[in-house]
Amino acid sequence: MRTLDVAALALNTALYAAFGYVFFYILPLTTPGLGLVRFWPQVIIPAVFAVIFGPWVGGLGAAGGIFISDMLIHGNPILSLMAGVTSNFVGFALIGYIARKNFEWKIPMLVAGIVSVLLVWIAYSVVSSEYALLFSGVIVGSYAVLLIIVLLGSKWRSYEVGSMIGLLVGSAIIGTMVPVFSQFFIMPGNTELTPLTISGGFTYFVWTFATEIPFLIVLGPPIIQACYKAFPALQRKEKGANSAKNS
User: Looking at the domain assignment, is residue 246 inside a domain?
Assistant: First the structure.
């Protein structure tokens, strides 16, 4: 890593941890009926770093930041390493990697549409009725915004698709690892073993994706563009094949 990358990694970690800790105590929203997994709009922080400085800076900064905030909030290192650290590292590394690639977008968008339908079905199957409609609306609306941006031929195509894929993978890790943890360890705030069912895992999956994807796809482009305007030297040179391949 360059010296600039190391500095960016440290700043990414610090901002993610600090905003995560402060925001939770201002608005302590967690997964309906299950708790633990927090409302987390600050996902935009490592996403921006991943795009500007690359997948390693984005992924490692997110992993370090979530671990620090987890220790300050629930204090369970095993749970954080199993679910928070892994999901954040993989999810934001993917965003940073895909955002820097030029690719054929039609198949990923078709798959994203199918996954969105599946998520809506899961929401109505496992989430309480008062939240199912809200989650479904957010998922459908987010996909609609994503589709509009991609069809308009925006330079943000790769970032938007990367956000969808990265968050899906990260959410799936959380939805898998938290129930696995609960089979062997006492969950934070409990006094005895309370194993989660598969439906609990799906609830965490849908909650994580539905509450974070709007911040990634809506706030990401203007913040990244503002960073490029403020620090032009950070902007990567675009390869000439980009517009031709994605048009």
Answer: no
